[in-house]
Amino acid sequence: MEHRHRLEDRTPEPNRVWIDLAGPDEAAIARTEALTGLALPSCADLREVERSSRLRRQRDALVLSTPMVSFDGAPGLHPLGFVLARDRLVTLRFQALPPFEAVARRQAEPDGPRTSTALFGALLAELVDALADRLEAMSDALDALSGRVFDFDLGRGGAPKRRDRALRQILGEVGRSGKALSMLRAALLGLGRIVPFVAAEAEPWLGPEEHTHLEILRLDIVSLEEFETRLSETVQFLLDATLGLVNMEQNNTFRVLTVVSVIGIPPTLVASIYGMNFKTMPELDWAWGYPYGLALIALSALAPALYFRIKGWF
User: So where does this one cross the membrane (predicted)?
Assistant: First the structure.
C-alpha cells in the first residue's frame, strides 16, 4: 500500500493514508473531498485566528490549522492545515516545508510511520525540530549583534555620516530579528495548541507510544516558547541599547554645536567693540592696532576652545 501522495493535477488513489496538498486550488480540494469523504478547509478558513476555527472536530475528523514560518528565503507566515482522521491524514500547505520532505523520506524506510496518527506525530516532531533550529540560529545571530552594539565606539567610529549609517544598519537588524521572532512565536503558539487538543480528542486512535510522543512534543514546545521569550527580551534590550547609542550620537552633535557657538561669542564681542566708530578710541591711532585686534580676536576664540578641550567636551 502506498501511504503518501502530493496532489497536483491528478486524483489520488483511495488507498492513500497521507494526502499532501501543496498550494491546492478549489478543484484540488474538491477532488480530495470526493475521494476521502472529508470536508477540507479553504485557505481563507486556515487563516482564521479564532481558536474555535483553528481547532475543531468535524464528524469523525479533527480539523487543525496554524501559521507556519518559511524555512527558506524571506521570512513569512503562511497557513498550514491538517485534517486528521483515524485512517487518513490530509495536509494543506502553501509553501515549501522541508520537514514534510523529511517525513516522506522516513516513511519510505521499513520502520517508518505508516498510520495517520504516526505520520501526524512525525510531522509535528519535524516542524518542532525545524523551529528549534531557527531559534538556535537566531540566538547566535543576536549574540553577534550584541557584540556589535556594545563594541560600538561613538568617538572612534569615523565620520558622523559613517557612524549614522552603522547605527541605522544595527537598528534595522534588531527590527528584523524582532519580526522573525514574532513569526516563530506565532508558529510555536499554534503548535502548542494543536498538541494537547489532538491528545484529548484523538485519544481512542492513539497508542501508548503516540501518547508519550505527543507529551514529549508538548514539553518541547513549552521549552521553546520559554527560549523564544528570552530571545525576545534580548531583542528588546538590544533595541533600547541601540536607541541609547543614537541618543548619545545626537547629544554629541548638539554638544559640538554648543561648544562652537560658545567659542564664537568672545571673538564676536571683540569685533563688535572695535567695530564702533568713536573718535576717542585710543586703538585707532596705534600703528599696531589692527594686528592687536586680530590677535585679541584669535586669543578670545582659543581660550574657551582650550578650556573645553581640557574639560573633555570635544
Answer: 256-276, 288-308
| Rounded Cα–Cα distance for residues 213 and 220 (Å) | 10
**pLDDT attached to residue 296:** 86
Q: Which pTM was predicted?
A: 0.79
CATH superfamily of 4-255: Magnesium transport protein CorA, transmembrane region (1.20.58.340)
Cβ(167)–Cβ(242) under 8 Å? yes
Contact 81, 190 (CB under 8 A): no
- Please say if the pLDDT value at position 176 is more than 70: yes
Confidence band, pLDDT 50/70/90 cuts, at residue 156: low
Distance, in Å, from the CA atom of 85 to the CA atom of 17, rounded to the nearest integer, reads 10
| Of residues 100, 103, 69, 92, the one with CA closest to residue 23 | 92
Strand (E) or helix (H) holding 186: helix 160-201
Range ranked top by mean pLDDT from 37-41, 188-192, 246-250, 296-300? 188-192
For the segment 211-239, the average pLDDT, to the nearest whole number, is: 95
Flag whether pLDDT at 84 surpasses 70.
Answer: yes
